[in-house]
Design goal:
Length: about 400
């Protein structure tokens, strides 16, 4: 299973940007949960905590395609460094507002700034792979590797930030996330040898979201993001209701662990099934895997159920990025990939907000029904619009 991945690192400069990119996007699994834990500790309300986290996610979702367009136009380094430093300053401002008991609106205002200055670093990493391996069958393996790296982050990040916030200090998790963001992302940007060149924008080129296949996937990933956002918040409350709040990080690590295992397996195979069919089947498997979490009340059983639910995440995301790479012109690639992050980000915001409301009203176990309903919606979108993915380009195998 590991064999296909070894050859990826023979290209000069790859190890450097992979390591830096991994460290720089480590906070993507820590930021939302860290904010939820901090605000809930201060206010005692999961609804308020979810609303602030949702504000950050919405702001990030709006800004991601814009920052992607800037990267496509001016290059990664010229955009990444100033945005990252500004992001660090705004996150510090959010924590200071919370620390000194500033009015609630300041948390939302700084949350907007935090999200607006955050980068979809995974899109930039994948753009480098696309530049280095364009036209190669190894690009599928590279995207699979990055999905596995994302899941390692989602295994380690929630457990780390939850342990820091609950056992040391509510601010500790966000401080570690801030450090990883600045150090990793700046180090990534300074590695110019593997940076994709700036390609001139084609005359009359619009935005990738106007491409039917990209629009379809964006809607499906919006629904998937709602699952992620709601499961994150509801799982924290689920553990809290059972007097084991520090276990929330381990439960969420199980969710990501299932995706990690499936990502390794999926990337090691060569597929004859068309990308469009793989995408729809992965969505269906994701919904089926979520069914048990709506029926379980025991912490240990929930860990196993979340692992099962996570098994379809990586195949869906890997296929989505592969389809985007095929459907979007090279000069719009970073922006095109950012639309996946944007869609997931909007979904996470909706899920965090709705999950918080439903948890406060009906309890965590019942609130999981919302997550399952969003997964079914993603399947309906994928099945109903799958014809938009069946283009001559999308039929190519990877």
């Amino acid at each position: 299973m590991v064999g296909p991945y070894r050859g990826l690192f023979s290209t000069p400069g790859v190890k450097g940007f992979v390591v830096a990119g991994f460290l720089g996007r480590m906070p993507m699994s820590m930021l939302g949960i860290g904010i939820i834990l901090l605000i809930e500790a201060l206010t005692g309300s999961y609804a308020t905590a979810g609303a602030v986290a949702a504000t950050v996610s919405v702001s990030l979702a709006v800004a991601a395609p814009l920052s992607g367009r800037l990267v496509d136009r001016f290059g990664q380094a010229r955009v990444v460094v100033p945005l990252t430093l500004t992001h660090g300053a705004t996150l510090t401002g959010l924590m200071l507002c919370a620390r000194h008991g500033a009015p609630l609106w300041t948390l939302f205002a700084t949350g907007v700034a935090v999200g607006a200055t955050a980068l979809s670093l995974g899109s930039l990493v994948r753009a480098r792979w696309s530049h280095l391996l364009a036209g190669s069958g190894r690009l599928h393996t590279a995207f699979s590797f990055e999905s596995v790296a994302d899941e390692v982050i989602f295994v380690a990040g929630p457990a780390l930030v939850t342990a820091l916030a609950t056992m040391i200090n509510p601010y500790a998790g966000l401080i570690v996330a801030l450090t990883c963001t600045v150090v990793g992302t700046v180090a990534f940007a300074l590695q110019r040898g593997t940076e994709p060149p700036v390609r001139p924008r084609q005359a009359g080129a619009g935005t990738p979201i106007t491409i039917p296949g990209v629009a379809l996937m964006s809607c499906a990933f919006l629904a998937m993001g709602a699952v992620f956002g709601s499961v994150d918040l509801i799982t924290v409350a689920f553990a809290d209701e059972r007097g084991a709040k520090p276990m929330a990080g381990l439960l969420l690590a199980s969710f990501a662990g299932g995706s990690l295992v499936s990502g390794l397996w999926y990337g090691s195979r060569r597929w004859s099934i068309p990308l469009s069919s793989r995408f729809v089947r992965s969505l269906a498997a994701f919904a089926a895997g979520l069914t048990p979490i709506t029926l379980i009340g025991d912490l240990r059983l929930m860990a196993g159920a979340l692992f099962l639910a996570g098994l379809a995440i990586s195949p869906t995301i890997i296929t989505g990025y592969s389809l985007t790479e095929r459907l979007v012109p090279a000069g719009l690639l970073t922006e095109g990939m950012a639309w996946i992050s944007t869609s997931v980000g909007f979904g996470v915001a909706i899920g965090a907000w709705a999950g918080g409301r439903l948890t406060d009203m009906f309890g965590a176990s019942n609130a999981y029904g919302f997550s399952f309903a969003c997964a079914l919606l993603a399947v309906a979108i994928g099945v109903g619009g799958s014809a938009w993915l069946r283009t001559p380009v999308a039929r190519q195998q990877s």
